[in-house]
């Protein structure tokens, strides 16, 4: 009986050691040029007035199931959004319709879980390999601001944004081996939002077909162990 327990313990330790040997964990910093795109009729006049620099930071992990392929995930804090414009029509004091342009600065923070596949090349230079990354990400809203305000007209601005976001992810970069288990990496990632982030405009403008989605390009730098 003791022999069976010892055998099971050794088997468990061996499996754990193998799994850890296949796993690389790191820290990633991702400044992002963030923007928005719109699904709306032209009469609403939606347009992006400017991209905005946002911050992303978190922990990433690559689980290798072969020498050149890995499942990559982690937990990222990402800030998204940009300055947008649209046309709002109301009635003037004489009861006549009047249209005015409105600009909003949207900022939404998410906790995001990337679910991607990474493909690695062999060495292209001494201790340097390239990687290509494709997949998606699931995000949940942490907080939000509109025009740098968390409360407008007595209501928290975060309530107007949807809780969850899905996005597609496509990236490429390079890794530099510094030691037996330490790597520096850098790359570029394109994030394309797939889900509507905000129902406020469809309610305000009386058009349920309006959707606002996040877009972004991030510069990723970090270290893996």
TrEMBL record:
This is Outer membrane protein beta-barrel domain-containing protein. Residues 1-21 form the signal peptide. Keywords: Signal. Residues 22-198 form the Outer membrane protein beta-barrel domain. SUPFAM superfamilies: OMPA-like (SSF56925). It comes from the Bacteria.
């Amino acid at each position: 009986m003791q022999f069976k327990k010892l055998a099971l313990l050794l088997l468990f330790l061996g499996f754990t050691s193998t799994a850890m040997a296949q796993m690389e964990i790191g820290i990633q910093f991702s400044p992002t040029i963030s923007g928005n795109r719109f699904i709306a009729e032209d009469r609403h006049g939606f347009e992006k007035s400017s991209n905005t620099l946002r911050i992303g930071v978190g922990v990433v992990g690559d689980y290798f199931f072969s020498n050149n392929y890995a499942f990559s995930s982690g937990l990222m804090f990402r800030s998204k959004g940009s300055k947008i414009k649209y046309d709002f029509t109301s009635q003037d004091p004489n009861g006549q319709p009047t249209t005015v342009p409105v600009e909003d600065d949207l900022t939404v923070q998410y906790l995001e879980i990337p679910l991607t596949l990474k493909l690695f090349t062999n060495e292209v230079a001494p201790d340097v390999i390239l990687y290509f990354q494709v997949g998606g990400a699931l995000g949940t809203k942490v907080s939000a601001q509109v025009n740098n305000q968390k409360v407008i007209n007595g209501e928290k601005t975060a309530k107007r944004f949807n809780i969850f976001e899905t996005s597609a992810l496509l990236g490429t970069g390079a890794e530099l081996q510094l030691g037996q288990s330490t790597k520096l990496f850098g790359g570029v990632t394109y994030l394309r939002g797939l889900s509507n982030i905000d129902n406020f405009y469809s309610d305000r403008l009386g058009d349920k077909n309006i959707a606002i989605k996040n877009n972004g390009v991030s510069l990723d730098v970090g270290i893996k162990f």
